[in-house]
Amino acid sequence: MCQTVICCRVTPLQKAQVVKVVKKYKQAVTLAIGDGANDVSMIKTAHIGVGISGQEGMQAVLSSDFSFAQFRYLQRLLLVHGRWSYLRMSKFLRYFFLKNFTFTFVHFWYAFFCGYSAQPVYDDWFSTCYNLVYTALPVLALSLFDQDVNGRWSFYYPKLYIPGQQNMYFNKKSFLLCMMQSCYNSLVLFFVPYGALHDTVRQDGRDITDYQTFALLLQTCLIIVVNTQMFLDTWYWTGINHFFLWGSMAAYFALTFTLSSNGLFFIFPTMFQFLGTGRNSLNQPNTWLIIFLACLLCILPVVALRFIFLQTSPTINDKVRYKMRRDEVPAISPRRPATRRVSTRSSYAFSHSQGYGDLVTSQKFLGKKTPRRPLLFGQKEHPLGENQPQLFRTITEESEEQQSP
Amino acid sequence: MGKEKSKSGPLARRPDNSAFKQQRLPAWSPMLTASTVLPFFYLLALICMLLGVWLLLTVQRTQEIKVRDSRLQGNLPRERQRKDLSDPSDPKDLFYLSSLENFHQNLRRYMDSRDDGQMVGRKRSLKSPSSYCKPFDFDANGVPIAPCGAVANSMFNDSFLLTYYTINGPSVVPLLRKGLTWYTDKNIKYRNPKADNQTLAEVFEGTTQPSFWQKPVYRLDPFDPSNNGFINEDLIVWMREAAFPNFKKLYGILYRANKPYTNGLPAGNYSATISYNFPVQYFRGRKELVLTTVSWFGGQNHFLPIAYLVTSSLILLTAVVLTGVWWKFGKDGKNMAE
Questions:
Q1: Which of A31, A195, A340, B114 counts the most CB atoms within 10 A of its CB?
Q2: DSSP one-letter string for B49-65
Q3: B7, B14, B32, best to mutate vs chain A, most A CBs in 10 Å
Q4: Domain A12-69: CATH superfamily, name plus number
Q5: Model pLDDT, residue A160
């Protein structure tokens, strides 16, 4: 099967049409890379347009999604940054759905106990701050910094790119799994505190089965479970991740105690009704035992399942990460040319007739003195004329260096 | 923010080669390995088992007695009901709780129907209760109700009495009706309006009692004048809405200063007298008087100890399964061959 097609002497419109044909009939994600003004239409038509800034001006760059200075940076764009980007987006989406579904399903279970009157089971301030303050920053850090494999190893194992092509990290199946996990989490998060609290009192006999204590307990359990899930999901712990995650937990406790403090209550009694709830319930060992149990029941199945999948059917990611940990040696860096000359050429040219190719590659028109190389095509023979397949000479290292822009 | 030396030439726009911008920040990359996961699971199973056993032993030491009113009909004050209690002497506090079933204090409109500003003693809110209290804010003559709202209106007003049959005859078991509430509730959340040399009745002048009440708020406790007004302990206990339809609220604590109650209730015959004011037949509810002792863990609730024991066995089972899976598939990294 034909894997590669080369089109030459095409107009800009035809370039765009080639991309359109591939998009339409192959249902594939297309990427177009170019550096000149004649590439603009192709760049705009493709799903991802990459412009190269340099000799030909900035036209391609201005109309592209990504731009860089050298063609070879495309490898890094795809294999390192593209891959990381896909991983981060998928993790972000799954985590976001998980935490919000868990947050919401608990209200569904409470409906059976509150006479279906739509009484929220959390404090209103918690509902406000949940997505804004308590869980926003850790997931932001995850989606900015997370890496599974570092840059060098990504180059060494291009096969790591396959999960992105096959849409393995976020698809309908993983979304359904996420929903089911949320459902299970919400069941645990509601019924464990319900069972433990509905029929008991505090150490000193006073009330602990009131609505506000229950709400606070549920909130605390939820925050801890959700942040522990983030702990499991993050694979690359920079200092910023640590700061955001532990800081969010601290912010939760700080805000909860602030919003239930005496001062705020005196100013706005109806808005800050949870006065004293934290102080009176979180000093009971009962509540902390409930929180511990709820977290265990929510998190341990995840850990166990991930471990089982890691042992029985590890993905290419897992294998490379394992190797990375075990070897502790950076992968061989990709071959770089010894000298980096600023090139005055920035495009490829293909010629259909004899003579021009040699002319271009011999750099004669630049007026530079270059060492003589063997010619691409012999002057005498013309394989096309004889209906023979064209034989190309092997590109050696020396000439590759000279030909790279 | 300008750079000190402006780079020129073809590398002018190159991004910094800093660790942050090149995504090379020093980081910890954990991975689920057998040497971390398996000991972790075994350790957790052990911890849960110990916790479960400890909690079970603690809960077994608490005692709970429920006195169910078998005749639910009618509103008559109930006669005495003999019940044999055989409480062994146990130097612990005994708590009287009133238990209610099928009463939804957690209904949304019910919970909204209160005015915390009024209950914290604001003079302005005393005479003009918030609109959330409708229709329990003003009575038929337009007089403001204090305390307003459905929560206060439906206050539980049964009273219980325990009588101990000694050799010398029946004696009423003394009951402490104070110290039933949270500190923050009693001292901060609920305060009477400021009384500048006025009696409590004068402070509440111009307001009326809720329609279901038999006494006005400033005369709720005839025996203790400091337990009247918004800071009445029964009122505060009731105003803390329960989370579920079946709940218990603290009614009183056994007064253990004098003999023979210094070590709790001595064994013998008791009877409970319940004055039946709170009608439960309208919402098909049930009432009970519950006597219980507590431990550091709280009242008698077997859920958490049993849950911990079940969890520990589940974790142990999972740990064994994981060990088996690891042994078969992933030992020495044989599943990680490329």
A1: B114
A2: HHHHHHHHHHHHT--EE
A3: B32
A4: HAD superfamily/HAD-like (3.40.50.1000)
A5: 92
